Each structure stands twice: as structure tokens, then as C-alpha cells.
Amino acid sequence: MFFANPMYLWALLGLAVPVAIHLWSKDEGKTIKVGSIANLKESENAQTRTLQLNEWLLLLLRMLAIALLVFILAEPFAKTKTKNQDLVYLVEPELLKIDTFKNSMDSLTESKTVKLLQEDFPEYNAADSVKTAVTNYWQLAQGFEKLKADSLVVYSQTLHIGFKGKRPEITENVNWVTIDSAQTTAGVVALTQLQDSVEVLEVESTKQQLRFKQSVREAASVQNLETDLEIQHLDTLQVYAFAEDSLQTDLKFLKTSFEALSAYLKRPIAITDIAPNEIPEGGILIWLSPSDTPEFSGTLLDYQPDAFASDLIVKNSTHFSLTENLTRKNVVEQHLAEHLLPLLNLHPKLDEAVQKYDRRVLADAFATPLHTAEEQELNQASNIPLTHWFWLALLITLIVERLLSRIRKQ
Questions:
Q1: Three-point CA angle 209, 213, 219, nearest 5°
Q2: Phi and psi of 310, rounded to 5°?
Q3: 139 and 195 fall within a common domain
Q4: pLDDT score of 81
Q5: d(Cα 361, Cα 341) in Å, to the nearest integer?
Q6: Please, what sign has the CA dihedral across residues 392, 397, 400, 406?
Q7: How far is CA 89 from the centre of its chain?
Q8: Are 110 and 142 found together in one domain?
Q9: pTM
Q10: Mean of the pLDDT values across residues 153-170?
Q11: What range does the domain containing 13 cover?
Q12: Which residues are CB-contacts of 25 (< 8 A; sequence separation ≥ 6)?
């Protein structure tokens, strides 16, 4: 038995209090003159022995009550030893789609513990269907300690999209094994209607990179593509512009760049000059003025000079900013039109569509969580509180002490 607050055990010195009270309350003997004690001696001895026994019981009960109260304050608990599992295998669910790998895991479950690399680490059962989803490797790694294993072997694809947040630090011994589920994947991620044709945006992914391919096809040929994407119909992109007199030259460069993008992308873009009090709703707003930027619900490009910026246009938390005055030189050398592409947001759901085909992997040296210097205990101890049992014993002791006190009139 162990105590969470052992300092309270000093209070056991209070056991001397009922002993002192017992000794001080002892009545002095009285002398009674009688003619003969022959018939009294045996009865007196029996009565005295019973009397002393009952008083000692009261004393012990009162001392026990004090001791139990002290133990309760010290918060007693017991420890039970739990042996860690020697080795646990964790498998990313999507890898089970590979027949050869699945067969290996099915045979491994006969002798080893195999769990799925997903939330709560469920036990792998070959007979059950496995749901697949994007795996957040580092988030799951923070829960490895729940497995209580001496060593872990993790089989995963180590996909780049599965590493989010800060690289965790863990104490478990982990051997991270990367399995290539597919060398190359490709698919259509966007379809855009262009008058009598359709623009098809495709992506191809390898372990090292993503490659995009754009082509224009006849509407009839698009029906043969293996995709469930809907064709996006183009609306005219509305661009609203306001500039102070000193920034009119910058506005001309911006307008020219938008017109070039419209011709190259075959996207209709309408540019409209507005007054400061004519703030529209939606679209793109170019606000070239040193005055305060207005509230705008669409995409905003304002003027915020920054001598330390490396690009002509940078993205802030809520909007874009032009970092320096535009000239023929920096417009050409820094490719202003390319910097304006993110403002158009041509494919708002592109990231979600690309995730389906993204098979870029992270190198094992960067994928494995950091291992701390702390050594993991092979036999972990779990605490079992005993306080409630001591409360029960104290209650029973007090009830017995009160009943005995009433009988003995103590």
C-alpha cells in the first residue's frame, strides 16, 4: 500500500490521546469493610476481568478510528503491474487493398498483435471491411503510448498530405516502414466549359512530384473520361478598381496584366472603375490608396509598400497586397501576371480534388516522430485508489464504538 500524501502520517502521533484519556479517567478504588469475603471473591474477580476487557475494546476502537482518519487524509492506493506487449504492428488501412500485403497481414495476425493506423487503433480483423481515409500520421503518433508496447512497427504509405502540424516527440520505440501502394496515379481534377469546347485539367503524381496537364477537347469526347466531376461553366470575372492620382500608373499595369490573363486563359474578365463610396459586393477589388482599406466580401488587392518583400504581390491573412510601385522593368522581370493568378481563384475545389491523386511521399528520416531521451518503463504500474474502503471501515468503527459506549456508559 502506498500513500499520495504521506506527510499526514505524522498525525498518527494523535493515537496517544485516547490512551491518555483512558488512563486519566480511571476511577480510584474504594475500601468497603465486610465481615467475610469468602462468597464475594470469585464474583468480584469475574466482574473485574469483564470490565477491563470492555474498556480495552473501547480504547482500541477509538484508536482505530483516529488511524483510519489519518490514512484517509494520506490518500492510500495500491499498484498493480501490467506487462507491456512485446511487439505491436500498425497498418495503414489503404495498404490492405494490396492483395499480397493483405495476405501477409492475415498470416501475421495468427501470432502477433496487428492494429489499424487510425483513430483509437482498432484491432485488425481480416473478416471485417476496412474504411479508408486520409491518415494524419503525426496526430496518431501522439497516441502510441496507449498501445503499451515495447516496440511498434508501422506500415504506411508515408504520404505527404498526411503530415500536418508539428512533428511530435514520443518515448515509444517505433520502426517506420514505407510501403509504395502505387508508383504513379493520374486523373482529372477540373472541367471548365469554354464556349463549344471543354478545358480539361489533369494531374499526375509520382513519389517525388505533382504534374499538371491542361488540354482543350470537344464536349463529346469529355463524356468518355473516367471522372464524376461536373463541368464548370464560366462566368465573367468582375474586377473593380480604384486608385489615387499618384497610383494611376500602377493601376494601368494591373489592368493590362488582367487583360493578358483573360486572353491567355480564355476567361472573360471585366474591369470597372469605381469611386471610393461605391464598394461592390463580391468579385475582385483593386484598392490603390494610402487611406484605410474598406471592408470587402470578395478578393481584395490593396497597396502596402514593403521594402523587405521579395514578390510584387504577397498574400496576407485575409487579402493580397501590392508591395511596391510598378514599372516596365519589374512587371516583366517578376512576371506580374503570374502573381495575379491566385486572385482569380479559377479552381476553388482544386486542392480537394488533387488530394485523391497525390502520392508524393515524405522521406523516412523526416516522417518518423522524434524519440525523446526518456526510457519507457517495460512494466507500467496502474494505481488503484483505496480511500473509499477506508471510509467504509471508519463508518463501521464509529458505529461499533458508539454502541459499545452506550452499553458501557463510557
A1: 150
A2: -95, -15
A3: no
A4: 56
A5: 28
A6: negative
A7: 22
A8: yes
A9: 0.56
A10: 88
A11: 2-22+43-80+387-408
A12: none
